[in-house]
Design brief:
Layout (H helix, E strand, L loop, with lengths): L4 E3 L6 E3 L2 E2 L10 E4 L4 H6 L5 E6 L4 H16 L5 E6 L4 H6 L7 E6 L2 E7 L4 H8 L8
């Protein structure tokens, strides 16, 4: 469940703030924080594709991506789940996906990594990069 909502200055829509825990059964327009313990339930067993954002609080490009990821989660609700993994707090998961630079984003579909994106990017470019991996329109 979302913690609260905020309006990002560069966006005209109200977008959810990051939520903690294990997401429900659908992609709900929220960016979820997952860790080594909740990763399998939130990502590998997801009924929709998942965009994983491997990030750290001390990483400036990662902080730049946060409002973009929130917008993507909101725009693609029902077709994509978006999760954040803090590499410092969840080293096993970061190691399993070979994360060497941040931000690294991985698209997982049916439990398998299908795309890896390294580095910050615009919302439009991110949407273009993941378009082939989205679930069908609900």
């Amino acid at each position: 469940m979302p913690v609260h909502e905020m309006s990002a200055p560069e966006m005209s829509v109200s977008v959810p703030v990051v939520a903690s825990g294990v997401p429900g059964s659908a992609a709900d327009g929220v960016v979820w924080e997952v860790d080594d313990d909740t990763f399998a339930a939130a990502v590998l067993r997801s009924p929709v594709p998942v965009l994983i954002d491997f990030q750290a609080d001390w990483c400036p490009p990662c902080r730049m991506m946060r409002p973009i990821l929130r917008q993507v989660a909101s725009e693609l609700a029902g077709r994509l789940r978006v999760v954040e993994v803090d590499v410092d707090a969840s080293p096993r998961t970061a190691l399993a996906y070979g994360v060497l630079a941040m931000p690294t984003m991985v698209v997982v579909r049916d439990g398998q990594a299908v795309a890896t994106l390294v580095g910050a990017r615009s919302c439009r470019r991110l949407l273009d990069d993941i378009a082939d991996h989205l679930a069908e329109q609900p």
